[in-house]
């Protein structure tokens, strides 16, 4: 059976209480902390950097999954590795040399992945599958939490699942954007195994109730 992982996006957490927020969401059952880095250049928003990753690292034992929405990419990678990131993903169109950036992440001791926006073709994976540990399919255009799920992403998840299965490698397939209790099952049935959810979790008073409801939906998936 597939191991499904819930990765709350701290983009929707209360930044004034971030340490407490990440402790609470892990206690509520989060498997991964998803950490959104936006630069007001590659995407039209500005969030958090390595200092904040370093600050939350002692508060959680689970992996920190850093999603870089920045351009250029390479300069900031060693800083995130030193700050305690476990997984670092980036957008292929934001890197001049995708293979080099993937290798840089791995040489820094982290798992590496590529992120695909709704309009980004999947062919960027063609010659680098051997250096990929995660594929992240965006089901919204990047930049903001609280957007609606773009159903077309399900087709991409199916394609990515097929590529992963054909590679025979152990690659996480993550989906990010508009994930809620009522659509997580469809994303899992299309092939995703790791689910980023920001507003769905952090907008509710009881994080465990939401995560448990998501897991109950995932338990219905037949793979
Ligand atoms: O990367 C992101 C936006 O660029 C966020 O992780 C994502 O949108 C999660 O937020 P929500 O679950 O509220 O859609």
From TrEMBL:
GO biological process: pentose catabolic process; pentose-phosphate shunt; reductive pentose-phosphate cycle
Domain of life of the native organism: Bacteria
Manganese among keywords: yes
InterPro entries: Aldolase_TIM, Ribul_P_3_epim, Ribul_P_3_epim-like, RibuloseP-bd_barrel
Pfam families per the UniProt record, alphabetical: Ribul_P_3_epim
EC number(s) stated in the UniProt entry for this protein: 5.1.3.1
Binding positions for a divalent metal cation per the UniProt entry: 34, 36, 67, 176
Binding positions (substrate): 9, 67, 143-146, 176-178, 198-199
NCBIfam families the UniProt entry points to: PRK05581.1-4, rpe
Family: Belongs to the ribulose-phosphate 3-epimerase family.
Protein name from the UniProt record: Ribulose-phosphate 3-epimerase
């Amino acid at each position: 059976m597939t191991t499904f992982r819930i990765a709350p996006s701290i983009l929707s957490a209360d930044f004034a209480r971030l340490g407490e927020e990440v402790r609470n969401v892990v206690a509520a059952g989060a498997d991964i902390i998803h950490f959104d880095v936006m630069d007001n250049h590659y995407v039209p928003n500005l969030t958090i950097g390595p200092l904040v990753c370093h600050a939350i690292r002692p508060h959680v034992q689970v992996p920190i999954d850093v999603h870089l929405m920045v351009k250029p990419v390479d300069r900031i990678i060693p800083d995130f590795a030193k700050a305690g990131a476990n997984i670092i993903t980036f957008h292929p169109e934001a890197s001049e040399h995708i293979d080099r950036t993937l290798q840089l992440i791995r040489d820094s001791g982290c798992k590496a992945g590529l992120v695909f926006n709704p309009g980004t073709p999947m062919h960027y994976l063609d010659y680098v599958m051997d250096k990929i540990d995660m594929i992240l399919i965006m089901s919204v255009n990047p930049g903001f939490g609280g957007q609606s799920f773009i159903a077309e992403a399900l087709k991409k998840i199916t394609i990515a699942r097929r590529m992963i299965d054909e590679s025979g490698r152990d690659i996480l397939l993550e989906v990010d954007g508009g994930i809620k209790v009522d659509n997580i099952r469809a994303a899992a049935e299309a092939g995703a195994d790791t689910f980023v959810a920001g507003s769905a979790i952090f907008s509710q008073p009881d994080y465990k109730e939401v995560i448990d409801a998501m897991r109950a939906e995932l338990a219905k998936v037949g793979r």
